[in-house]
Amino acid sequence: xxxxxxxxxxxxxxxxxxxxxxxxxxxxxxxxxxxxxxxxxxxxxxxxxxxxxxxxxxxxxxxxxxxxxxxxxxxxxxxxxxxxxxxxxxxxxxxxxxxxxxxxxxxxxxxxxxxxxxxxxxxxxxxxxxxxxxxxxxxxxxxxxxxxxxxxxxxxxxxxxxxxxxxxxxxxxxxxxxxxxxxxxxxxxxxxxxxxxxxxxxxxxxxxxxxxxxxxxxx
Length: 219
Prior knowledge:
- By secondary structure, the protein is mostly helical.
- About 75% of the residues lie in helices and about 0% in strands.
- Helix 1 (about 5-35) packs across helix 5 (about 130-155) and helix 5 (about 130-155) runs antiparallel to helix 9 (about 200-215).
């Protein structure tokens, strides 16, 4: 293992990951607050300060471990607390606030791609080689990681299994009986996801083509 390249990779990946998970969690709280639930505001989670959203395992330990041993990074932040009893329409508003996280990740991914297309690529053709290598190349790599991480987070979180965001959205839009049946899976949701990804290996089918597509788009 090349320690220098591993450290460099982590330094490039860390800022996009922190931005992705911070905006993801803050957007849940922001939309919930707009819909009538101030819980996240009362506990200080309506902020873009990443320290407020860091989960020691999901934000630090697991991403570093995965990167060192697999080259792939995924993680999570502390969930923003939401009390659906404060919503005017709990079923609908819970779905809307849940969808906010993946939506902001898609926006961040598109923004990263646009910056590469509209700024990085044009500047790399006109700036001296030294400036390109020392400034644009690391920035380009960081933006590529941002695009990939945000797309992966959005897709992963929209898997329709509670407590993932997609599960909460599905519960919000399904008829009552089907919504109640799906919501009963929440205590087992992460075990189901672990089984799907680590034993059935569905991650390669879901994320592989998407990651390759994003990497081709971003050069």
